Amino acid sequence: MPSVPSVPWWGVAASVSGPVLLVAGWTIAARLQPAPFDPVSQTVSALMQVGATDRWLMSGALVVVGVCYIVTGAALRPAGTAGRLILVAGAMTGMLVAAFPLHPGISVWHGVWSVLGFAGLAAWPLGAWRRGPAVPWGLRRPACVTAVVVQLVLLAWFVVEVVLTGGWTGLVERLVGLAQALVPLIVVLSCRLSRPRRTVGRSALSIRGDAA
After folding, report:
1. Which residues of 185-207 are buried (b: 16+ CB within 10 A; e: fewer)?
2. Consecutive H or E run containing 209
3. Would you put residue 105 in left (φ > 0), alpha (ψ -120 to 50) or beta?
4. Neighbours of 94 (CB within 10 A)
5. Pair 14, 68: CB distance under 8 Å
6. How would DSSP label each residue in 73-101?
7. Which of 45, 80, 82, 105 has a CA-to-CA distance to 71 between 20 and 30 Å?
8. Is the CB of residue 79 less than 8 Å from the CB of residue 130?
9. What is the mean pLDDT of the chain?
10. What is the DSSP string of 173-192?
11. CA 11 – CA 68 distance, rounded (Å)
């Protein structure tokens, strides 16, 4: 059975850090606002818009999380190259959201980079899945398609909330962000957890061969 490369420890650290830093960033930034901040109705972008208190905190968290995605993409050697590149591109465009914060009125570039970032982070599993019995379950086609479908459903819900100015805009945006942060982590863990089983299998075959 052909083996697949493993994910190095620094890739695991980056994939774990991503969702932790994202949640910590928007939680702490919300508590620093002088006026009551409603995370259910108000978006993460409001925490780094021009005029927000300590907006550097959410902006910095978004950049650091983007770096975590890029490091994870570099470490995901078992994944398809196209998927890894899309993950890195989605992370880079998402980081530009912090460079173009919301302003009073229409913030075109903030919206453009947000859309591109969300799209890239949602679509990357389609280019990452692989064939073969040795492929970790997180990189098999059913798992990758499921991950994309779940994210697209959440994104569609978010778009509806934005268009209709719904009361759950902030909550749905956070669900989208958390889902997109957890997918790379789940894939990385599936790669790491699948390694010992293949190693044990090869060791057993080696022992039998030596005994013969």
Report:
1. bebbbbbbebbeebeeeeeeeee
2. helix 169-211
3. left
4. 24
5. yes
6. HHH-TTS-HHHHHHHHHHHHHHHHHHHS-
7. 45
8. yes
9. 88
10. HHHHHHHHHHHHHHHHHHHH
11. 8
33 contacts 53 by C-beta, under 8 angstroms: yes
Task: Retrieve residue 187's tokens.
Answer: 């894939």
- Polymer length in residues for the chain: 212
Contact 41, 168 (CB under 8 A): yes
CA angle 177, 178, 179 (to 5 degrees): 95
- Whole-angstrom Cα Rg for the chain: 20
Give the C-alpha separation, 32 to 12, whole Å: 30
The 3 state secondary structure assigned to 94-106 is HHHHHHCCCCCCC
The letter for the amino acid at 80 is G
The contacts of residue 126 (CB under 8 Å, 6+ apart) are 83, 86, 144, 145, 148
Which of the 8 DSSP states describes residue 140? S
pTM across the whole model: 0.86
Confidence grade of residue 103 (pLDDT, cut at 50, 70, 90): confident
Q: Express the helix, strand and coil content of the chain in percent, nearest 5 each.
A: 75, 0, 25
- Determine the Cα–Cα distance for residues 212 and 210; give it in Å rounded to an integer: 5
pLDDT per residue over 119-160, tens digit each?
999 999 999 999 988 899 999 999 999 999 999 999 999 999
d(CA 48, CA 59): 6
Do 118 and 69 contact (CB within 8 A), yes or no? no
- C-alpha 101/C-alpha 123 separation (Å) is 24
